[in-house]
Amino acid sequence: MEKNDITTKVLIGLVSGMLIAIIVLIFVLVSTKKENEQISSENITVSNERDNIKEKFSDLLDDYNMLETSNDSLNAEINNRKEEIIKLIEEVNNTKNWAAGMKKTYEEEIKSLKKIMRHYVFQIDSLNILNQQLIAENEMVKTENDRYKSENDELVDRNTELLTTIEDASVVNASHISVTFLNGRDKETNRSSKIEKLKIGFTLSANKLASSGQRNVYLRIKRPDGYIISSGGTFTAGDSQLSYTDTRVITYENQSLDVSIYHKVNRDKDPLTAGKYGVSIYMDGCKIGESSFIIEK
To answer: Exposed/middle/buried for 49, CB within 10 Å: 0-12, 13-18, 19+?
Structure first.
């Protein structure tokens, strides 16, 4: 009987011990599960915080990329800030142990960078307004310059017209041009074979606007074939160099003046053939008169 009681007690003890062990095991398992769930929850929270910080940095980088300005100095500052943001994103990605205060630290960085960006936006807007003002002022100045240029061109045209009018008014004209045929004894002749000289006479008009003093008067005689009887010399008329037949120096005193120029015929070089000849008289670089004469057979 006593032996059975002992056995019963032993069994009861074993069962009690097993029950206690099971209870302890259950408690440990439950505690471990709760700890794992807590760790998992913390990991999810950390991951969410990291992703949220990365997203904020990425959005901030996009905002910086939208900043546009033609100011080189400001562009350099903006690029430095963008590089700073890229490094912060890499830092967040490479952080293995996410401490509790890191979120706050990064949020302060984001806050600071946003504040700086708002300052850049203000600067860019100010520069744009200034540029618009400068463009408007430049347009105004250009319009004024165009107006002044137009007025100046008009004034130049008027001055040119006035100078042309004055130059035209100051020209001394040659009128009453006559050609006389002379023989070897300086007597008039009508026989072409006897002509030794040509006397070209003309009258220089009186002109108070013309300058007075010594002048060179040039005579050009054009043969029937169109060639000029040339002495070998040239003079300037406008932008051209013209050959002349004969020349004479006269003194002009703004009064009417009768002038004669003689041309000695060179029968070997320029024989006088039958036909119509042209006579042109030049002075002061201008043609001041012209006429013609005919030599008959």
So the answer is: middle
What digits encode the pLDDT tens for the residues 108-117? 888 888 888 8
CA distance 229 to 220: 7
What is the dihedral sign for C-alpha 11, 12, 16, 17?
negative
pLDDT at 123 over 60: yes
What is the value of pTM for the model shown?
0.48
- Give every CB contact of residue 208 below 8 A, 6+ residues apart in sequence: 254
Contact 110, 104 (CB under 8 A): no
- Which amino acid makes up residue 211? S
In CATH, what number does 174-295 get? 2.60.40.10
CA–CA distance, 102 with 96 (Å, rounded to integer): 12
d(CA 241, CA 234): 6
Q: Which residue has the tokens 């002992």?
A: 6
Give the whole-angstrom CA distance, residue 286 versus residue 260: 18
Q: What is the DSSP letter of 187?
A: -
DSSP 105-150: HHHHHHHHHHHHHHHHHHHHHHHHHHHHHHHHHHHHHHHHHHHHHH
**209-238 burial code (b ≥16 CB/10 A, e <16):** ebeeeebebbbbbbbeeeebbbeeeebebe
Residue 260 to residue 61: CA distance in whole angstroms: 98
Those residues with Cβ within 8 angstroms of residue 226's Cβ, 6 or more apart along the chain or in another chain = none
How many other CB atoms sit within 10 Å of the CB of residue 57? 22
Under the banding of pLDDT at 50, 70 and 90, the label for residue 134 is confident
Domain ranges of the chain: 2-120, 174-295
